[in-house]
Amino acid sequence: MPTASTTPRPRHRVLPSSAPVTGLLALAALLVPGVAAAQTADTTRLAEIQVVGTRDRLAQIPGSAFLLDRATLRAWHPASVNEALRRVPGVATRDEEGFGLRPNIGIRGLNPTRSSKLLLLEDGLPITFAPYGANETYYHPPIERFDRVEVLKGSGQIRFGPQTIGGVINYLTPAVPRDPTLTLSVARGAREFLGARVRAGGSVGPLGALATYDRKQGEGARDNVGTRLDDVTLKATLALGGRHGLTVRINGYRERSNVTYSGLTEAEWAAAPRQNPFRNDSMLLDRWGASATHRWTPGTGVELTTSLYAYDVSRDWWRQSSNSAERPNDASDPNCGGMANLLTTCGNQGRVRDYSVWGIEPRVSAVSTVLGLPVAIEGGLRVHGERQDRRQVNGASPAARQAGPATDVNSGLKENNLRENRAYAVFVQPRVFLGRWTLTPGVRVEHVTYGRTNRLADPDTSGRTSLTAVVPGVGATFDPGGAVTLFAGVHRGFAPPRTEDIVSNAGGVIELDAELSWNYEVGVRVEGGGARLEATAFRLDFENQTVPASVAGGAGAALTSAGRTLHQGLELAGRLDAGRLRGSPHNVFVEGAVTWLPTARFEGPRFAYVGTAGPDVPGKVYAGPDAAGTRQQVSVTGNRLPYAPRGTLALTLGYAYRDAFDMRLEAVAVSRQYGDALNTGVVVPDGQQGPITGYTLWNAAATYTHAGTRTTLFVSARNLTDRLYVADRTRGLLPGLPRTVQAGVVQTF
């Protein structure tokens, strides 16, 4: 049995040590026959997996879908994924550290904490540390790595998994250029921001490659918060005789951030809302990943795409506090003596994590005729494995990066867990063309196994369990003529529980069901001339939604079954280009995304735990204390779900002249929301409960490109009025970003 004085092994490997990554490229080569006989072919046709595809394919999708294209991303120069995605209807984002490295993305009123209620993909492949066992997003690639962003929320998302409730966000990397290209860019800005990028690539015969290096650094939204990250990506393509294509991607990511986990108490916010007393807290993160996607077209209308992927992650978060209610004090840390000694004698917690993920995913698509009807069918399967090596190593000082002495009761190894998951999935989704109608039924089956071993016990204690889910769906589109498409769909929503929530540390199986819902959509899509519009009515009817067990539970809190919840509302997105309507190179345009969510509430009997020391909430039904006598349960049936604003708006007015000049002004509005299930109307001293006031932010950007020299100059400004607002209460009060201005230059050769 490990002792309290156990010292962790050396961290942050230069190269990954596990077999999945190191053996992936060799295995990928076996998928491609006849490499030596490769002939010159079109290397721009990549072997990749798309969720939506190009804009002209939107009319075929039986559900809500949205594309953030290259032009939009280049015009706004977003500093984070949060900034980019707030322009998507139905999506709400929440800032945390200021760089979007741990984004909080919610869809249609689902809790955005750690983006755990949706599926994040890169080129169609998963990116979160443990998609089946712990889907929280503690890492996110820099938005600059990507060329386009696809968002799919309808029944078509059952082609992907395991998260099929909120939606799928797929980030697409740039295509390998045909001609040799070199791009250099640099940007400087407020709060010590520096961004630099080098991108080089080209094609020779059947072989193409694109290499990118990104460096970002700067201060966050609070004092004593700073980030330094390096991101290197290599993408290579090989075309083989016209029938075979191979895309290989290799990525290395390194982050060194001074960032705490804890927000502020009400008193701290009143004194200095941008303060961060935990100046020694840090996140140390290294990620290495590789994938290979092979496309084979054996005949007309038939295509087989096989993807292999693997990644290793080393993540250490050293911090002195997990939330604003957990402050150093004599009772929890006798060597500390309270907040007065925070920077001298108070110990810390090292949340030391290693993850290894691998998978193989073949997909086949074919076009045929069945009973005289044209049919396009897509199907596939996945075999996926993941391993979590999780330890908590407590240090004896605020700057410690290893376990403290065994003589200190608060130091040493406090957790040593091995958590493993295996997943097997299969799906089929045909598309039947019936004149003006297109019918798209489908089904996905997910089988997940869970294992957890507590290596602190003597002997080790282990537990295992599994679950199987059948996820059906059906969608339909109707073409009434012109530029209009009507669509509707219904599908089963499924999200597996985390390993830690279904298998206890003692090896027992916890009766926590998977999240299940029925999701409904009906909408209209119009695109033609200089106008584009999509309007969608949606309903998410949960049979069981899991939520934090405590009122102010954060990302690491234990989860419990909340029972029935209901989300329903409307989404609207559109754009009008006056220049296209008039045939003029001078284009005045307006675009916007609106979400109205009148209903997001607990439906069935539901109680939340609150501490007995707190005051009773008027009008609430109390069910009495728990078995330990330390907490009491309060009915929240009918209450609004936390972090589900009734309305969000992103509205842009802009002017563009050809591809040379673009300037735009944007208003982003978020309505009032609650930070807890009690819908507490007054603030609580720890800052984790209470309302979050609505706010409106103003942003602007301008871009000029000189075609002759291929030089682009840009400037972007966020929060022009320097509005101070509360972005989050999950672990205490967090402020949103202050006014930030950045300017840069991009040179292409």
Compact overview of the structure:
The protein has 749 residues and is mainly beta. The strands form 7 sheets. It has a 22-stranded antiparallel beta barrel.
Residues in helix, %: under 10%
Examine the secondary-structure arrangement and name the CATH architecture: Beta Barrel
Structurally, the number of domains stands at 1
CATH-assigned fold name = Maltoporin, Chain A
Unreliable stretches: 1-45, 549-556
Largest sheet entry: 22 strands, antiparallel, barrel
How many β-strands, per DSSP? 38
N-to-C CA distance: 60 Å
Q: What this model shows, in words?
A:
By secondary structure, the protein is mainly beta. Helices cover 5% and strands 51% of the residues. The chain is built from six helices and 38 strands. The chain has a 22-stranded antiparallel beta barrel. Strands 1-6-7-4-5 form a five-stranded mixed sheet. The longest helix has 11 residues. It is globular and about 75 Å long.
Topology:
Layout: H1 19-29, E1 65-68, H2 70-76, H3 81-85, E2 91-94, E3 104-107, E4 119-122, E5 125-126, E6 148-152, E7 168-172, E8 181-189, E9 193-204, E10 207-219, E11 226-240, E12 244-258, H4 266-271, E13 282-299, E14 302-319, E15 348-370, E16 373-395, E17 412-434, E18 437-454, E19 461-481, E20 484-495, H5 499-502, E21 515-528, E22 531-544, E23 546-548, E24 559-561, E25 565-577, H6 578-582, E26 586-602, E27 607-611, E28 622-625, E29 631-635, E30 647-657, E31 661-670, E32 673-674, E33 691-692, E34 695-706, E35 711-718, E36 726-728, E37 734-735, E38 740-748
